[in-house]
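quick one: 3,4-dihydroxyphenylalanine bound model?
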Amino acid sequence: MQDPLNTLRTDALSKLAAVASPAALEAWRIEFLGSSGSLKSLLGAMKDIPKDQRAAYGGAVNALKAEIEGAFAEVKARIEATAAPKDLIDPTEPGLLRSESLGRRHVLTRVREELCDVFSRMGFSVAVGPELEDDDHNFVKLNIPPEHPARDPLDNFYVDVPAPGTKPRMLRSQTSTVQIRTMEQAVRDGGGQLRGPIRIVSPGRVYRPDTVDATHSFMFHQIEGLAIDTDLSMADLKSTLLAFARAYFGPAAELRLRPSFFPFTEPSAELDLRVSLRPDQPPRWMEIGGCGMVDPAVLTACGIDPEQWRGFAFGFGIERLAMGKYGIPDIRLLFENDLRFLGAI
Ligand code: DAH
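yep, here:
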């Protein structure tokens, strides 16, 4: 009666030794330990055993069961240890219903970069200047006299009461300050005189104590342009502005210069562009900024000989350009950082 047990033992252990995968192990378990497996049939044979031998037989079967279950547990642990990493990832599982929203650069940043790109392609390099300025650069050298209304303390952010003999400091009210700084630097680099043409654009923040509404903010952005060469004229200014307008708004953009006055340019003009924002909308004129030929007094203030050099300059509101291009109705949307707006634009 021991023989069938020994046969099963040998068979079970030798087959178990050959098991190398979870599937083979499961097949082995069903064959030997399953509900209709070999071990069960040994127990089923109990009824054919003479009564006086049943206890011994039962004990022997139980011992065999314990032995092969122990061997099974060992092999199972070994196989799971090597197969675990594969089993952790089930490529057939559906994806998690979670969408990570990707961030992106603010629309004003994108517009500023696009403007710099457009002007770079026309040979302008990008210059920057400080936001905390003195009134020499914000006003005096730009030919804005002391009695000019633009210098009213109520229209500017002066940051301190100047000690006697020092210049008042202020948050710049226009990026035209960078024209002055660029020309002064070029003259310093030239050892006291300008030695070659200048072509820069300068984007940046400017500050004015305006009451905030749909079109005004106490802080906004401008981009300033300056070109100095020996033979520049209004025609160069106009063709540069038109090339810019078409690159930024598309080839159908039209341009209009309206005579105006700025202390730092003579002649001066307001620049309007006529653009069609959507194919279903008629084109409309919008005011973009000011421009003109650099006033000789400004060149002189920077140490540049106006008999030898001429220049043109322009300054645009970046918010205006962004609102015009993207149909943004209210300037406050640009500063509130509402994700519903930022994600849609
Ligand atoms: N600085 C002017 C302003 O803030 C804009 C401007 C007008 C800039 C004419 C220029 C210019 O360079 O030539 O209103």
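The beta strands are 125-126, 132-134, 157-158, 169-171, 198-207, 219-229, 254-262, 265-275, 284-294, 310-317.
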